[in-house]
Amino acid sequence: MQNTFTKQLLFTLLLVLLSTASFAKIYYVAPDGNNSNAGTIEAPFLTIQRSQVDVSPGDTVYIRGGLYTMTEAQIANWNTPLSGLWVYVTDLTKSGTSGKRINYWAYPGEQPVFDYQHIIPANKRINAFQVSGSWIHLKGIEVIGVQVTITTSNTQSICFANEGSNNIYEQLSMHDGQAIGFYLTKGANNLILNCDAYNNYDYTSKAGGGINGGNVDGFGNHPNKGGVNNVFRGCRAWFNSDDGYDCISAHESTVFDNCWAFYNGYSVGFVSRGDGNGFKVGGYGSATLDKVPNPVPRNTTQFCLSVRNKASGFYANHHLAGGDWYNNSAYYNSVNYNMLNRKARTTEDYLTDVPGYDHVMKNNLGFAARSTEVSNLNQAASDVSNNYFTLPVTVTSADFVSLEQALLTAPRKPDGSLPDIDFMRLVPGSDLIDKGVDIGFPFQGAKPDLGYREYQAALGIKPGASPLARTVIYPVPADQVVHIYLPNRSPKPVQLTLFDLQGKKVNSKVMAASEALQLSISNISSGVYFLEMSYAGTNEVISRGKFVKRQ
Known about the structure:
The protein has an eleven-stranded parallel sheet, with no helix packed on it. It has a ten-stranded parallel sheet with strand order 3-6-9-12-15-18-21-26-29-34, with no helix packed on it. It is globular, with a radius of gyration of 24 Å. Helix content is about 5%, strand content about 30%. Among the domains are: about 125-400, Pectate Lyase C-like (3 Solenoid); about 470-550, Macroglobulin (MG2) domain (Immunoglobulin-like).
Protein backbone atom coordinates (compact mmCIF):
# COMPACT_ATOMS: atom_id res chain seq x y z
CA MET A 1 0.00 0.00 0.00
CA GLN A 2 2.80 2.39 0.91
CA ASN A 3 4.63 1.56 -2.30
CA THR A 4 1.50 2.35 -4.35
CA PHE A 5 1.06 5.67 -2.53
CA THR A 6 4.68 6.57 -3.18
CA LYS A 7 4.31 5.83 -6.88
CA GLN A 8 1.14 7.93 -7.07
CA LEU A 9 2.87 10.82 -5.30
CA LEU A 10 5.86 10.67 -7.63
CA PHE A 11 3.57 10.53 -10.64
CA THR A 12 1.65 13.59 -9.41
CA LEU A 13 4.87 15.51 -8.83
CA LEU A 14 6.05 14.60 -12.32
CA LEU A 15 2.84 15.91 -13.86
CA VAL A 16 3.26 19.19 -11.94
CA LEU A 17 6.82 19.57 -13.14
CA LEU A 18 5.87 18.81 -16.72
CA SER A 19 3.05 21.34 -16.60
CA THR A 20 5.19 24.15 -15.23
CA ALA A 21 8.54 23.57 -16.93
CA SER A 22 9.42 25.49 -20.05
CA PHE A 23 11.04 23.30 -22.71
CA ALA A 24 12.95 24.85 -25.59
CA LYS A 25 11.73 23.64 -28.95
CA ILE A 26 13.55 23.20 -32.24
CA TYR A 27 12.09 24.03 -35.65
CA TYR A 28 13.52 23.65 -39.12
CA VAL A 29 13.44 25.66 -42.35
CA ALA A 30 14.65 24.23 -45.67
CA PRO A 31 14.68 25.26 -49.37
CA ASP A 32 12.35 22.37 -50.19
CA GLY A 33 10.10 22.98 -47.19
CA ASN A 34 6.48 24.03 -47.09
CA ASN A 35 4.84 26.55 -44.77
CA SER A 36 1.97 24.10 -44.26
CA ASN A 37 4.39 21.65 -42.68
CA ALA A 38 4.93 21.14 -38.96
CA GLY A 39 8.45 22.58 -38.96
CA THR A 40 10.15 19.32 -38.02
CA ILE A 41 13.38 18.10 -39.54
CA GLU A 42 11.36 15.67 -41.67
CA ALA A 43 8.73 18.27 -42.60
CA PRO A 44 10.41 21.70 -42.46
CA PHE A 45 8.94 25.13 -43.08
CA LEU A 46 9.92 27.01 -46.23
CA THR A 47 10.51 30.45 -44.68
CA ILE A 48 11.96 31.90 -41.53
CA GLN A 49 8.91 34.17 -41.39
CA ARG A 50 6.65 31.14 -40.98
CA SER A 51 8.81 29.73 -38.20
CA GLN A 52 8.41 32.94 -36.19
CA VAL A 53 4.70 32.17 -35.77
CA ASP A 54 5.52 29.14 -33.61
CA VAL A 55 8.68 30.11 -31.74
CA SER A 56 8.83 31.14 -28.10
CA PRO A 57 11.73 32.48 -26.01
CA GLY A 58 14.46 29.85 -25.78
CA ASP A 59 13.54 28.14 -29.05
CA THR A 60 15.89 27.54 -31.98
CA VAL A 61 15.12 27.58 -35.70
CA TYR A 62 17.68 25.63 -37.69
CA ILE A 63 18.02 26.82 -41.29
CA ARG A 64 19.11 24.01 -43.59
CA GLY A 65 21.74 24.65 -46.23
CA GLY A 66 21.03 25.39 -49.86
CA LEU A 67 19.71 28.21 -52.04
CA TYR A 68 16.54 30.05 -51.02
CA THR A 69 15.24 31.94 -54.06
CA MET A 70 13.16 34.66 -52.44
CA THR A 71 10.02 35.96 -54.17
CA GLU A 72 7.78 38.98 -53.76
CA ALA A 73 5.03 36.69 -52.50
CA GLN A 74 7.18 36.13 -49.40
CA ILE A 75 7.35 39.82 -48.42
CA ALA A 76 6.17 39.90 -44.81
CA ASN A 77 4.61 43.36 -44.73
CA TRP A 78 3.29 43.45 -48.29
CA ASN A 79 0.01 45.38 -48.59
CA THR A 80 -0.10 46.26 -44.91
CA PRO A 81 -0.60 49.76 -43.50
CA LEU A 82 2.95 49.63 -42.19
CA SER A 83 4.62 49.04 -45.54
CA GLY A 84 4.84 52.64 -46.75
CA LEU A 85 8.18 53.19 -48.42
CA TRP A 86 9.68 49.95 -47.09
CA VAL A 87 9.14 46.30 -47.77
CA TYR A 88 10.37 43.82 -45.16
CA VAL A 89 10.91 40.42 -46.69
CA THR A 90 11.53 38.74 -43.34
CA ASP A 91 10.15 40.77 -40.44
CA LEU A 92 11.32 39.47 -37.04
CA THR A 93 9.09 41.15 -34.46
CA LYS A 94 8.89 38.44 -31.79
CA SER A 95 11.35 38.78 -28.89
CA GLY A 96 13.15 36.34 -26.68
CA THR A 97 14.07 37.16 -23.10
CA SER A 98 17.26 37.45 -21.06
CA GLY A 99 18.76 33.97 -20.95
CA LYS A 100 16.22 32.69 -23.49
CA ARG A 101 17.01 34.07 -26.88
CA ILE A 102 15.17 33.11 -30.01
CA ASN A 103 17.82 31.60 -32.25
CA TYR A 104 17.77 31.56 -36.05
CA TRP A 105 20.84 29.52 -36.84
CA ALA A 106 22.30 27.86 -39.89
CA TYR A 107 22.13 24.11 -39.41
CA PRO A 108 25.57 22.91 -38.22
CA GLY A 109 27.88 22.25 -41.12
CA GLU A 110 25.50 23.70 -43.72
CA GLN A 111 25.29 27.08 -45.50
CA PRO A 112 21.89 28.66 -46.21
CA VAL A 113 22.02 31.28 -48.98
CA PHE A 114 19.12 33.71 -49.49
CA ASP A 115 18.93 35.26 -52.98
CA TYR A 116 16.83 38.45 -53.37
CA GLN A 117 17.48 39.32 -57.01
CA HIS A 118 13.84 38.66 -57.97
CA ILE A 119 12.38 41.00 -55.34
CA ILE A 120 12.02 44.26 -57.25
CA PRO A 121 8.87 46.09 -56.10
CA ALA A 122 8.73 49.49 -57.79
CA ASN A 123 9.69 52.53 -55.71
CA LYS A 124 10.29 50.62 -52.48
CA ARG A 125 13.21 50.32 -50.11
CA ILE A 126 13.93 46.64 -49.55
CA ASN A 127 15.04 45.25 -46.19
CA ALA A 128 15.87 41.58 -46.52
CA PHE A 129 15.74 41.09 -42.73
CA GLN A 130 13.97 43.67 -40.57
CA VAL A 131 14.61 42.94 -36.87
CA SER A 132 12.56 44.92 -34.35
CA GLY A 133 12.44 42.07 -31.84
CA SER A 134 14.97 41.78 -29.02
CA TRP A 135 17.01 38.96 -27.52
CA ILE A 136 17.40 37.36 -30.96
CA HIS A 137 20.48 35.55 -32.27
CA LEU A 138 20.97 35.21 -36.04
CA LYS A 139 23.89 33.04 -37.10
CA GLY A 140 25.40 31.72 -40.30
CA ILE A 141 23.01 33.29 -42.82
CA GLU A 142 24.22 34.41 -46.27
CA VAL A 143 22.35 37.16 -48.15
CA ILE A 144 22.97 38.00 -51.82
CA GLY A 145 21.41 40.05 -54.60
CA VAL A 146 19.35 42.59 -52.64
CA GLN A 147 18.06 45.14 -55.16
CA VAL A 148 17.38 48.89 -55.32
CA THR A 149 14.31 49.98 -57.30
CA ILE A 150 13.99 53.73 -56.62
CA THR A 151 15.57 55.78 -59.39
CA THR A 152 14.38 59.30 -58.60
CA SER A 153 16.07 60.02 -55.27
CA ASN A 154 18.88 59.18 -52.90
CA THR A 155 17.81 55.87 -51.35
CA GLN A 156 19.04 52.61 -49.85
CA SER A 157 18.17 48.95 -49.37
CA ILE A 158 19.48 46.89 -46.46
CA CYS A 159 20.39 43.25 -45.87
CA PHE A 160 19.96 43.24 -42.06
CA ALA A 161 18.22 46.21 -40.38
CA ASN A 162 18.17 46.28 -36.58
CA GLU A 163 15.75 48.17 -34.32
CA GLY A 164 15.76 45.76 -31.35
CA SER A 165 18.05 45.37 -28.34
CA ASN A 166 20.28 42.65 -26.93
CA ASN A 167 20.56 40.94 -30.31
CA ILE A 168 23.52 38.99 -31.69
CA TYR A 169 24.32 38.95 -35.41
CA GLU A 170 26.99 36.30 -35.94
CA GLN A 171 28.77 34.89 -38.98
CA LEU A 172 26.50 36.66 -41.45
CA SER A 173 27.66 37.17 -45.03
CA MET A 174 26.12 40.00 -47.08
CA HIS A 175 27.47 40.40 -50.57
CA ASP A 176 27.01 40.93 -54.29
CA GLY A 177 23.96 43.14 -54.06
CA GLN A 178 23.00 46.81 -54.10
CA ALA A 179 22.27 47.04 -50.38
CA ILE A 180 24.01 48.06 -47.17
CA GLY A 181 25.16 44.97 -45.31
CA PHE A 182 24.10 45.73 -41.72
CA TYR A 183 22.29 48.86 -40.55
CA LEU A 184 21.18 49.90 -37.06
CA THR A 185 19.02 52.91 -36.21
CA LYS A 186 17.55 51.83 -32.86
CA GLY A 187 18.36 49.43 -30.05
CA ALA A 188 21.01 48.88 -27.39
CA ASN A 189 23.46 46.14 -26.38
CA ASN A 190 23.66 44.59 -29.83
CA LEU A 191 26.71 42.59 -30.87
CA ILE A 192 27.66 42.27 -34.54
CA LEU A 193 30.20 39.46 -34.49
CA ASN A 194 32.38 37.93 -37.20
CA CYS A 195 30.30 39.15 -40.14
CA ASP A 196 31.38 39.94 -43.73
CA ALA A 197 29.94 42.60 -46.08
CA TYR A 198 31.48 42.86 -49.54
CA ASN A 199 30.93 43.54 -53.24
CA ASN A 200 27.89 45.75 -52.59
CA TYR A 201 27.18 48.59 -55.04
CA ASP A 202 23.99 50.53 -55.81
CA TYR A 203 24.02 51.18 -59.55
CA THR A 204 20.30 52.05 -59.73
CA SER A 205 19.34 55.05 -57.61
CA LYS A 206 20.15 58.69 -58.10
CA ALA A 207 22.85 58.29 -55.47
CA GLY A 208 24.23 55.48 -57.59
CA GLY A 209 23.20 56.62 -61.04
CA GLY A 210 25.58 54.05 -62.44
CA ILE A 211 28.37 56.27 -61.12
CA ASN A 212 29.08 56.15 -57.40
CA GLY A 213 26.71 54.06 -55.25
CA GLY A 214 27.16 56.64 -52.53
CA ASN A 215 24.94 55.14 -49.82
CA VAL A 216 26.18 51.56 -49.72
CA ASP A 217 28.30 51.00 -46.61
CA GLY A 218 29.35 47.62 -45.34
CA PHE A 219 28.17 48.30 -41.76
CA GLY A 220 26.26 51.26 -40.34
CA ASN A 221 25.54 52.08 -36.69
CA HIS A 222 23.31 55.13 -36.26
CA PRO A 223 21.41 54.60 -32.98
CA ASN A 224 19.00 57.11 -31.54
CA LYS A 225 19.19 58.25 -27.91
CA GLY A 226 19.39 55.24 -25.60
CA GLY A 227 21.02 52.98 -28.16
CA VAL A 228 24.08 52.28 -26.01
CA ASN A 229 26.68 49.52 -26.06
CA ASN A 230 26.44 48.49 -29.70
CA VAL A 231 29.64 46.68 -30.65
CA PHE A 232 31.10 45.54 -33.98
CA ARG A 233 33.70 42.83 -33.45
CA GLY A 234 35.64 40.63 -35.84
CA CYS A 235 33.87 41.94 -38.95
CA ARG A 236 35.24 42.57 -42.45
CA ALA A 237 34.07 45.07 -45.08
CA TRP A 238 35.51 45.29 -48.58
CA PHE A 239 34.54 46.53 -52.03
CA ASN A 240 31.49 48.36 -50.66
CA SER A 241 30.86 51.37 -52.88
CA ASP A 242 30.69 53.90 -50.03
CA ASP A 243 32.35 53.29 -46.64
CA GLY A 244 33.36 50.16 -44.79
CA TYR A 245 31.96 51.21 -41.38
CA ASP A 246 29.91 54.35 -40.71
CA CYS A 247 28.43 55.82 -37.53
CA ILE A 248 27.45 59.26 -38.77
CA SER A 249 24.56 60.77 -36.78
CA ALA A 250 24.90 58.21 -33.96
CA HIS A 251 23.41 59.58 -30.73
CA GLU A 252 25.29 57.06 -28.58
CA SER A 253 28.86 55.77 -28.59
CA THR A 254 29.88 53.03 -31.00
CA VAL A 255 32.70 50.48 -30.55
CA PHE A 256 34.58 48.99 -33.50
CA ASP A 257 36.82 46.23 -32.19
CA ASN A 258 39.15 43.95 -34.16
CA CYS A 259 37.48 44.75 -37.50
CA TRP A 260 38.96 45.03 -40.99
CA ALA A 261 38.10 47.45 -43.81
CA PHE A 262 39.68 47.38 -47.24
CA TYR A 263 38.97 48.47 -50.84
CA ASN A 264 35.91 50.53 -49.88
CA GLY A 265 34.84 53.38 -52.15
CA TYR A 266 35.41 51.10 -55.13
CA SER A 267 33.48 48.41 -56.91
CA VAL A 268 35.27 45.25 -58.03
CA GLY A 269 38.21 46.11 -60.25
CA PHE A 270 38.90 49.30 -58.25
CA VAL A 271 36.39 51.39 -60.17
CA SER A 272 35.97 54.61 -58.16
CA ARG A 273 32.51 54.99 -56.57
CA GLY A 274 31.47 56.70 -53.30
CA ASP A 275 33.28 58.25 -50.33
CA GLY A 276 35.53 55.30 -49.60
CA ASN A 277 36.58 55.57 -45.97
CA GLY A 278 37.51 52.45 -44.07
CA PHE A 279 36.15 53.56 -40.69
CA LYS A 280 34.00 56.73 -40.73
CA VAL A 281 33.73 57.27 -37.00
CA GLY A 282 31.43 60.16 -36.15
CA GLY A 283 29.96 63.30 -37.60
CA TYR A 284 26.49 64.75 -38.17
CA GLY A 285 26.71 65.97 -41.75
CA SER A 286 24.89 69.26 -42.28
CA ALA A 287 22.18 68.51 -39.70
CA THR A 288 20.77 71.50 -37.87
CA LEU A 289 22.11 72.09 -34.38
CA ASP A 290 18.94 70.81 -32.70
CA LYS A 291 19.58 67.41 -34.34
CA VAL A 292 23.04 67.11 -32.79
CA PRO A 293 23.02 65.13 -29.51
CA ASN A 294 24.08 66.72 -26.25
CA PRO A 295 26.48 65.46 -25.12
CA VAL A 296 28.07 64.33 -28.36
CA PRO A 297 29.09 60.66 -27.95
CA ARG A 298 32.68 59.50 -27.92
CA ASN A 299 33.40 56.58 -30.22
CA THR A 300 36.06 53.87 -29.86
CA THR A 301 38.05 52.18 -32.63
CA GLN A 302 40.53 49.56 -31.45
CA PHE A 303 42.67 46.75 -32.90
CA CYS A 304 41.26 47.46 -36.35
CA LEU A 305 42.92 47.21 -39.75
CA SER A 306 42.27 49.54 -42.69
CA VAL A 307 43.85 48.91 -46.09
CA ARG A 308 43.73 50.57 -49.52
CA ASN A 309 40.45 52.38 -49.06
CA LYS A 310 39.71 55.13 -51.56
CA ALA A 311 39.83 57.95 -49.00
CA SER A 312 40.83 57.73 -45.33
CA GLY A 313 41.63 54.58 -43.45
CA PHE A 314 40.42 56.01 -40.13
CA TYR A 315 38.30 59.16 -40.30
CA ALA A 316 36.75 61.30 -37.56
CA ASN A 317 34.35 62.75 -40.18
CA HIS A 318 33.80 66.28 -38.86
CA HIS A 319 32.84 64.92 -35.43
CA LEU A 320 31.95 67.38 -32.67
CA ALA A 321 34.01 65.51 -30.08
CA GLY A 322 37.18 63.51 -29.82
CA GLY A 323 37.42 59.74 -30.14
CA ASP A 324 39.45 56.87 -28.71
CA TRP A 325 41.79 55.14 -31.18
CA TYR A 326 43.82 52.22 -29.83
CA ASN A 327 46.22 49.80 -31.54
CA ASN A 328 44.96 50.27 -35.09
CA SER A 329 46.92 49.63 -38.29
CA ALA A 330 46.51 51.50 -41.58
CA TYR A 331 48.15 50.77 -44.92
CA TYR A 332 48.00 52.34 -48.37
CA ASN A 333 44.89 54.45 -47.83
CA SER A 334 44.79 57.90 -49.39
CA VAL A 335 45.13 59.27 -45.85
CA ASN A 336 45.82 56.72 -43.16
CA TYR A 337 44.51 58.77 -40.21
CA ASN A 338 42.25 61.80 -40.80
CA MET A 339 41.16 63.28 -37.47
CA LEU A 340 39.06 66.19 -38.77
CA ASN A 341 36.61 67.68 -36.23
CA ARG A 342 34.12 70.50 -36.12
CA LYS A 343 34.83 73.32 -33.76
CA ALA A 344 32.09 73.33 -31.13
CA ARG A 345 28.47 72.49 -30.45
CA THR A 346 27.34 76.10 -30.82
CA THR A 347 25.24 77.96 -33.36
CA GLU A 348 28.33 79.76 -34.63
CA ASP A 349 30.74 76.82 -34.88
CA TYR A 350 28.97 73.48 -35.23
CA LEU A 351 29.65 73.50 -39.00
CA THR A 352 33.18 74.91 -38.77
CA ASP A 353 35.90 72.36 -39.58
CA VAL A 354 39.05 72.39 -37.45
CA PRO A 355 41.99 70.05 -36.87
CA GLY A 356 40.94 67.22 -34.57
CA TYR A 357 41.03 67.85 -30.82
CA ASP A 358 40.47 65.78 -27.67
CA HIS A 359 41.36 62.56 -29.47
CA VAL A 360 43.10 59.84 -27.48
CA MET A 361 45.39 57.90 -29.81
CA LYS A 362 47.61 55.13 -28.43
CA ASN A 363 49.73 52.43 -30.09
CA ASN A 364 48.52 53.13 -33.63
CA LEU A 365 50.55 52.19 -36.69
CA GLY A 366 50.48 53.28 -40.30
CA PHE A 367 52.52 52.83 -43.45
CA ALA A 368 52.62 53.83 -47.12
CA ALA A 369 49.67 56.23 -47.28
CA ARG A 370 49.08 57.27 -50.87
CA SER A 371 49.00 60.97 -49.96
CA THR A 372 49.31 61.72 -46.22
CA GLU A 373 49.92 59.57 -43.16
CA VAL A 374 48.12 61.77 -40.60
CA SER A 375 46.03 64.84 -41.38
CA ASN A 376 43.81 67.33 -39.57
CA LEU A 377 45.10 66.52 -36.09
CA ASN A 378 45.77 69.10 -33.39
CA GLN A 379 48.35 67.14 -31.45
CA ALA A 380 48.63 69.74 -28.70
CA ALA A 381 44.88 69.46 -28.03
CA SER A 382 44.88 65.63 -28.07
CA ASP A 383 46.61 62.77 -26.24
CA VAL A 384 48.71 61.17 -28.96
CA SER A 385 51.67 59.60 -27.18
CA ASN A 386 53.09 56.26 -28.29
CA ASN A 387 51.98 56.26 -31.93
CA TYR A 388 54.16 55.66 -34.97
CA PHE A 389 53.92 59.35 -35.87
CA THR A 390 54.97 60.62 -32.42
CA LEU A 391 57.74 58.13 -31.55
CA PRO A 392 61.36 58.00 -32.76
CA VAL A 393 60.68 54.98 -34.99
CA THR A 394 60.97 54.40 -38.71
CA VAL A 395 58.35 52.30 -40.47
CA THR A 396 59.36 50.41 -43.62
CA SER A 397 58.14 47.33 -45.46
CA ALA A 398 60.93 45.40 -43.71
CA ASP A 399 59.00 45.71 -40.43
CA PHE A 400 56.30 43.32 -41.65
CA VAL A 401 56.17 39.61 -42.33
CA SER A 402 53.87 40.34 -45.27
CA LEU A 403 52.05 43.14 -47.05
CA GLU A 404 50.25 40.74 -49.39
CA GLN A 405 46.70 42.10 -49.61
CA ALA A 406 45.26 38.83 -50.91
CA LEU A 407 45.57 37.50 -47.36
CA LEU A 408 42.77 39.82 -46.22
CA THR A 409 40.09 37.66 -47.82
CA ALA A 410 41.40 34.37 -46.42
CA PRO A 411 38.71 32.01 -45.09
CA ARG A 412 37.58 32.51 -41.53
CA LYS A 413 38.33 29.97 -38.81
CA PRO A 414 35.77 27.24 -38.13
CA ASP A 415 34.34 29.26 -35.22
CA GLY A 416 33.86 32.25 -37.52
CA SER A 417 36.66 34.40 -36.13
CA LEU A 418 39.09 36.26 -38.37
CA PRO A 419 41.87 34.27 -40.01
CA ASP A 420 45.37 34.36 -38.56
CA ILE A 421 47.38 36.01 -41.33
CA ASP A 422 50.83 37.54 -41.60
CA PHE A 423 49.59 40.84 -43.04
CA MET A 424 51.33 43.68 -41.12
CA ARG A 425 52.53 41.20 -38.49
CA LEU A 426 55.80 42.52 -37.08
CA VAL A 427 59.07 40.71 -37.76
CA PRO A 428 61.70 39.91 -35.13
CA GLY A 429 63.85 42.93 -34.44
CA SER A 430 61.34 45.54 -35.59
CA ASP A 431 61.66 48.76 -33.63
CA LEU A 432 57.84 48.85 -33.47
CA ILE A 433 57.84 46.00 -30.94
CA ASP A 434 57.37 47.04 -27.28
CA LYS A 435 56.92 50.68 -28.30
CA GLY A 436 53.33 51.00 -27.10
CA VAL A 437 51.88 51.91 -23.73
CA ASP A 438 49.78 49.71 -21.44
CA ILE A 439 46.16 50.86 -21.74
CA GLY A 440 44.56 47.86 -20.10
CA PHE A 441 44.59 45.27 -22.89
CA PRO A 442 46.55 41.98 -22.85
CA PHE A 443 49.99 42.08 -24.45
CA GLN A 444 53.25 40.14 -24.68
CA GLY A 445 56.73 41.33 -23.93
CA ALA A 446 57.75 44.32 -21.87
CA LYS A 447 55.16 46.66 -23.40
CA PRO A 448 52.43 46.49 -26.04
CA ASP A 449 53.49 46.62 -29.67
CA LEU A 450 52.25 49.15 -32.19
CA GLY A 451 49.43 48.09 -34.46
CA TYR A 452 46.47 45.77 -34.58
CA ARG A 453 48.22 42.58 -33.48
CA GLU A 454 50.99 41.51 -31.16
CA TYR A 455 54.29 40.20 -32.46
CA GLN A 456 54.23 36.44 -33.29
CA ALA A 457 50.97 35.74 -31.46
CA ALA A 458 47.27 36.26 -31.73
CA LEU A 459 46.06 39.25 -29.76
CA GLY A 460 45.25 38.53 -26.13
CA ILE A 461 47.02 35.21 -25.57
CA LYS A 462 49.68 35.17 -22.88
CA PRO A 463 52.66 32.79 -23.28
CA GLY A 464 52.03 29.54 -21.42
CA ALA A 465 48.31 30.15 -21.04
CA SER A 466 46.07 27.09 -21.06
CA PRO A 467 43.70 26.76 -24.03
CA LEU A 468 40.32 27.98 -22.83
CA ALA A 469 37.02 28.77 -24.49
CA ARG A 470 37.02 31.90 -26.66
CA THR A 471 35.13 34.63 -24.85
CA VAL A 472 33.87 38.00 -25.98
CA ILE A 473 33.60 40.71 -23.32
CA TYR A 474 32.12 44.04 -24.31
CA PRO A 475 31.92 47.01 -24.34
CA VAL A 476 35.54 48.11 -23.87
CA PRO A 477 35.83 50.27 -21.87
CA ALA A 478 32.65 49.53 -19.89
CA ASP A 479 30.46 51.78 -17.76
CA GLN A 480 27.68 50.10 -15.78
CA VAL A 481 27.42 46.61 -17.28
CA VAL A 482 29.73 44.17 -19.05
CA HIS A 483 28.35 41.61 -21.46
CA ILE A 484 30.02 38.19 -21.70
CA TYR A 485 29.45 36.02 -24.75
CA LEU A 486 30.43 32.34 -24.33
CA PRO A 487 29.69 30.43 -27.54
CA ASN A 488 29.56 26.65 -27.85
CA ARG A 489 29.74 25.64 -24.19
CA SER A 490 27.79 23.28 -21.98
CA PRO A 491 24.35 24.52 -20.86
CA LYS A 492 25.26 24.73 -17.18
CA PRO A 493 25.08 27.59 -14.64
CA VAL A 494 28.24 29.68 -14.68
CA GLN A 495 30.11 31.27 -11.81
CA LEU A 496 31.67 34.63 -12.66
CA THR A 497 34.51 35.75 -10.38
CA LEU A 498 35.96 39.24 -10.62
CA PHE A 499 39.54 40.09 -9.58
CA ASP A 500 41.40 43.40 -9.47
CA LEU A 501 44.94 43.89 -10.76
CA GLN A 502 46.37 42.76 -7.42
CA GLY A 503 44.51 39.47 -7.67
CA LYS A 504 42.03 40.35 -4.93
CA LYS A 505 38.55 38.89 -5.39
CA VAL A 506 36.10 41.74 -5.93
CA ASN A 507 32.87 39.88 -6.63
CA SER A 508 31.52 36.42 -7.43
CA LYS A 509 28.13 35.53 -8.86
CA VAL A 510 26.43 32.42 -10.19
CA MET A 511 24.32 32.98 -13.30
CA ALA A 512 21.91 30.77 -15.22
CA ALA A 513 23.00 29.00 -18.36
CA SER A 514 23.21 31.32 -21.37
CA GLU A 515 25.62 32.07 -24.18
CA ALA A 516 25.31 35.77 -23.36
CA LEU A 517 25.62 36.98 -19.76
CA GLN A 518 25.46 40.41 -18.16
CA LEU A 519 27.36 41.48 -15.05
CA SER A 520 26.69 44.75 -13.24
CA ILE A 521 29.88 46.70 -12.47
CA SER A 522 28.22 49.90 -11.25
CA ASN A 523 29.52 49.40 -7.71
CA ILE A 524 33.23 48.98 -8.54
CA SER A 525 35.79 51.71 -9.09
CA SER A 526 37.43 52.47 -12.41
CA GLY A 527 40.37 50.37 -13.52
CA VAL A 528 41.38 47.07 -15.08
CA TYR A 529 39.73 43.83 -13.92
CA PHE A 530 40.10 40.13 -14.67
CA LEU A 531 37.06 37.92 -15.09
CA GLU A 532 37.21 34.17 -14.51
CA MET A 533 34.38 31.92 -15.61
CA SER A 534 33.81 28.41 -14.32
CA TYR A 535 30.94 25.97 -14.13
CA ALA A 536 29.09 26.53 -10.86
CA GLY A 537 30.06 24.12 -8.09
CA THR A 538 33.24 22.99 -9.84
CA ASN A 539 36.82 24.13 -10.21
CA GLU A 540 36.66 23.78 -13.99
CA VAL A 541 37.66 27.14 -15.44
CA ILE A 542 36.16 27.52 -18.91
CA SER A 543 37.43 30.97 -19.79
CA ARG A 544 39.23 34.06 -18.56
CA GLY A 545 38.97 37.62 -19.78
CA LYS A 546 39.89 41.19 -19.04
CA PHE A 547 38.04 44.50 -19.26
CA VAL A 548 38.43 48.14 -18.37
CA LYS A 549 35.92 50.00 -16.16
CA ARG A 550 35.64 53.56 -17.43
CA GLN A 551 36.26 56.44 -15.06
